[in-house]
Amino acid sequence: MSRHATAYVNSLGITDATVRAVLQLLAELTDAPGDHRRPDDVPDIMGLHLQDSDVPALAVRAGLAPEEFRQQLRGLKQHVKMDVLEHSDGLWEIVYGPSYTRPPKPRPAEPDLTRGGPHPFWLPGWEKYSTWGYEQDPGGHQHLYAQLIPNQDGPDAEPRIWITPPRHTVQTLDELAEVIAESIAPYEPVRMPGVLIKRWLTRSPLSDR
What we know:
Blueprint: H1 3-11, H2 17-29, E1 46-51, H3 55-62, H4 66-75, E2 83-86, E3 91-96, H5 98-101, E4 119-120, E5 131-136, E6 142-148, E7 161-163, H6 173-184, H7 194-202
Antiparallel strand pairs: 1-3, 2-3, 4-5, 5-6, 6-7
Helix pairs in contact: 1-2, 3-4, 6-7
């Protein structure tokens, strides 16, 4: 059981008893990073994977029929800001945490990073060698690009992931973040939403200290 995930769910103050019971059950199943830290130091993002074959047993624990439990999972986003992805192979991918519900901090205007580069990509595990930036092709068309290299591949490795035309023609940071989130999902234990990827594109971890 993750005490951080449980503490976070309890802090939401959800009044619907069924929704609260399902979320508390998910919190019990969550393996949140940093559970050794202080009880109030909740990770920004937490998540878990469920197989559809696990649903009947979980439904019993929640006091629901299996299909009722599935409907509750599908409807969680109506009560809490989170991602619930139901894949065709029977995998349920659930991601939630304070990053979804914490009000954004007011910040001063930042420079337009969609011009120039290369810029660093600060996502842990990718931050040593990955870059992104702005390009203009000979025809005058403008786009953003990214070259993503996992840290373990080393500085001389070819990028595992190229985000560039013609496969990807990306013109905004939001679009780039979503494409990166989709592209690196096979390499990560939990798929990160684009809103978090955008943070790793634009802000050094040192800026939060």
